[in-house]
Amino acid sequence: MMDESYFLQKSSERRAFEHFLRTGRRPPDNIPAKQIERKFNPYHDPRNGQFTFAPGGPRSPSRIIIASRDGVRRIVRGFPKPDAGLLHTSAANGDELGTAAVRNAPFLPTENPPGLQTANYRPNDRVRIGNNGGPPINDPLTLVRVFPGINSSPGGSILAVADSLLDLTGPSTRLTTAMAEGHINYLIARIRAVDPNYRFESLAFPVTLEGQMNLIARLRLDRAAAYYKIRGEVRPLQVETLRQMQIRADRAYDQAIAMLKSGKLSVRLSEPEAIGNHIDRAVRNDLNRLYSSLGLERSRSRGISVNAREYNTSGSDLTFRRPDARVGDIAFDVTLTQKTLKTAQVRGFFEADFRPKTVIIVRPTQLGLGNTYAITKPGKQP
Amino acid sequence: MMSYKPYIPQTIGEIMDLLGSMMLSAPKFQDPAGIFPEWSIDTTFHSLDEGLKAVRKRVGEDNYAVLAGLSERMKAHFAADPEDKTGEADKGYACLREMEELLPAIARRKR
Asked: Which residues of A touch B24 (CB under 8 A)?
């Protein structure tokens, strides 16, 4: 820490020059002898004021590493809980900022209440030079970006999903309305570049952050459908199918647990079996509904199917397996249990006539780290 | 956005999936992910009713009448208690479970 007297000894010209070096700006005419300077940190956890880490890596918000009192570093899985005090106070006052806005506000202890700051408050606009819209929104179009190394890994590898793909409470919630609007306009432009007849029908721009994120999710689906229908390009649909399966498996898991607790879920063999069955059925039905909504025909010949028989005609006996979904040469399976190449069902998928390149196992996020992963085709890769 | 096209299940298996999904989304039957605001109690029961028509021959006229009646009662119960507070929704859940047990039994008998 620099001595205050040293600071005060500097001439105003020296302080102005140092200010210019740090900020690239001329200081105000009446620069005070000492002032608080604050830097913008996009990875400042808005919910508790602590620093967090960049998305996409092993230290992103879903895998926070903290130091415990005894000095041992440990990993906390899952997302940090919102500050109950903040939420409680705002909600009790009937403040509409008490929900998403407060959770997304940066922590500025010497400033106004956090609810009055937007999620990406930037005191120094030179931090993001060139009006590039702030931190990039993770928007992969191919599974290569979702499972890094999927094309170069040895056969039979198990690859974890990139951490930030579904990091819904991470960077995505730091979207500001302007950023969301920018990304929505970008998505519409991309869809129109593929399908000039595309019409965007919306009553009004969503006011809430959740509504804006839902609109972005819907437009991503529309973009994937446009790529598939107009250009025959299936890869964006593979990504969106995975994203939707994950979101819906997570929701279905929560709902199934709640139903089980209230005694509304019928249990035959065991509770996990009942939960797993309902998640499977809910995800498959949702996939069928959303493919219908997008006007996508499901059939083996078109390469898109939900819970359809995928035959293996290579042996003397005709056999088949039913992946929960198939999009192009990717098979998807929703499950509660971990499945590997040792699982007969997974081997059966790879032996099916459509020869999947990868089998993606989708498990609810609530099950913990490494819930969703890809298994590459065994044997030598082309 | 692209115009909404309703989903109609074509097989008993797909209807079973729909019932499983309905069990988790009742009594409001909205899209759990919030992406498709078009999904509602009306679109869901439209899917169920049209799906039952699609398998009408397969299940037989008598069974179809029972299943269609169950669907009608189920919708009325859930519509009467969208917040799941008055007990009407519980009757809807009972109808749903009854249909979940009936359909596979019918499918097995018809094999």
From this structure: 252, 255-256, 259, 278, 282
